[in-house]
Amino acid sequence: MPAPILKYPMQNFVGKTAVITGGGSGIGEALARRASALGMNAVLADIDVTAAERVASELSSRGTRVLAVQTDVADATSVAALADAAWTAFGSVDLLCNNAGVVPAGRYRPVWEYPLEDWYWSFGVNTMGIVHGLRSFVPRMLEQGTPGHILNTASVAGFISGSGSPVYSAAKHAVVRITEALYASLIERNANIGVTLLCPGLVATAIYNSERNRPAELVPVTGIAEETEELQAIADNLYKSALSAEEVAIQSFAAIRDNQFYVITSNNFDATIRERAEAILARRNPRFENLLVLSKGDVKS
Ligand SMILES: NC(=O)c1ccc[n+]([C@@H]2O[C@H](COP(=O)([O-])OP(=O)(O)OC[C@H]3O[C@@H](n4cnc5c(N)ncnc54)[C@H](O)[C@@H]3O)[C@@H](O)[C@H]2O)c1
């Protein structure tokens, strides 16, 4: 079979519509600001509707047509309602950014000891949030037939392994696999929709205060892990090397325009990704001595 011809579906942003989940904070907010600066309409979907409305009112005051929609990406019905609201307001969706995500707080534990609630919450938002976005938007974007793009936010955690952060990292590994399937399926259909897998390293956002958005029914019976001064100091230290959300948004829109699939915003993790890939191909047992510290919850006591 001949190699697919690389297409560049989204060259023109002016007057097009972007839907951004998690648009009320961090990377989602920066993507929304960038979309607005490029002349796009923006639909900001967030479980924290006050945050989404704050960003929306600021963008609106600059002349952007913008809509804030309270959305729980872990809930298929809520995401279907988001799609309806976007098409009703703007008549088309050209760019979908499945970006909302959460990191459950807590000190390092072995994989068998994390509470079930952490697994359900992480996979519900980080993985099923993407699945719900694809199910509600892709058929309608295909039907629309116009050039478009889908950006899914995974993480470098989607490529690396070891004992740290399995609840978050496994959910992001699934996002990588799902997004590669999306890319392949759209190429098979010769669709005019590009795909980007955004894999940030550390970015200075509110992600490590994700607990603010945990639903009450998914609070473990043992309670939410406490933030100690020691853990806060570790987080502050991690952030010293963090990229800004604005820089991530700039890289993301360049990738959307160039139809670039993998966007890995930091090369700090390349050696770890390579070591794992080489161990797999060599059928060698993995070496995880370079335990990645992805969050303050990874630190062993
Ligand atoms: N900040 C980092 O270092 C980093 C690194 C790699 C990947 N990421 C990924 O980037 C994405 C954006 O995170 P961020 O760093 O901007 O964090 P953030 O906490 O600043 O923003 C996340 C947004 O998602 C929203 N959200 C949470 N649960 C939701 C739900 N159920 N439905 C809808 N919205 C929900 C939050 O209200 C918030 O506005 C996430 O997928 C995260 O996993 C972040």
Q: CATH topology, which one?
A: Rossmann fold
Number of strands: 7
In percent, how helical is the residue content?
A: 40-55%
What is the overall shape?
globular
What class, by secondary structure content?
Answer: alpha/beta
Question: What's the CATH first level?
Answer: Alpha Beta
User: How many domains in all?
Assistant: 1
CATH architecture: 3-Layer(aba) Sandwich
Distance between the termini: 54 Å
Secondary-structure element series: EHEHEHEHEHEHHEH
Within the largest sheet, what's the order of strands?
3-2-1-4-5-6-7
Q: Describe it for me?
A:
With 301 residues, the chain is α/β, with parallel strands linked by helices. It has a single domain, classed as 3-Layer(aba) Sandwich (Rossmann fold), CATH 3.40.50.720. Helix content is 43%, strand content 12%. The chain contains eight helices and seven strands, in the order βαβαβαβαβαβααβα. Strands 3-2-1-4-5-6-7 form a seven-stranded parallel β-sheet, sandwiched between helices. Helix 5 (166-188) links the parallel strand 5 and strand 6 (193-199). Helix 3 (76-90) runs parallel beside helix 4. The longest helix is centred in the middle third of the chain and has 29 residues, at 116-144. It is globular, with a radius of gyration of 19 Å. The model has no long low-confidence stretch (mean pLDDT 92). Nicotinamide-adenine-dinucleotide (NAD) binds at residues 21-22, 24-28, 46-48, 51, 71-74, 99-102, 125, 153, 155, 200, 202-203, 205-207, 210, 213. The site of nicotinamide-adenine-dinucleotide has 30 residues, from helix 1.
